[in-house]
Amino acid sequence: MKDKKDNATFDLPGFAPADPVDALVPEPKRPVPRSRRSTLKQEQIPLLNLDEADATGLPVWKSDPDLDLTGLPVWKPAA
């Protein structure tokens, strides 16, 4: 809105005359038929091949003479 006494003000957006109500009503949309997605079949994994685990589910630590405590191979001189 512009004040008649103040030439520095500017016209604010949104203060234009309103559109007729009939123009604002959207057309009804027809529902789009949904296609069914095929679901993947679930498969049971056998538990026999899994490594030993502790109560937390982490694998049980096993000592290996060829590896040090960090998991790196132990250096052995050539015989």
Keywords:
little secondary structure, 79 residues
3D shape: elongated
What is the count of DSSP helices, taking H or I runs of 4+ residues?
1
Distance between the termini: 97 Å
Sheet bearing the most strands, described? none
In angstroms, what is the radius of gyration? Answer: 38 Å
* Mean pLDDT reading: 77
The total of beta strands comes to 0
Order of helices and strands: H
Query: Strand fraction band?
Result: under 5%
What's the layout of helices and strands?
Elements lengths: L20 H4 L55
Please explain how this structure is put together.
- There is one protein chain.
- By secondary structure, this protein is low in regular secondary structure.
- The chain is built from 1 helix and no strands.
- It is elongated, with a radius of gyration of 38 Å.
Brief summary of the model shown:
The protein has one helix spanning 21-24. It has 79 residues and is mostly loops. The radius of gyration is 38 Å and the shape is elongated.
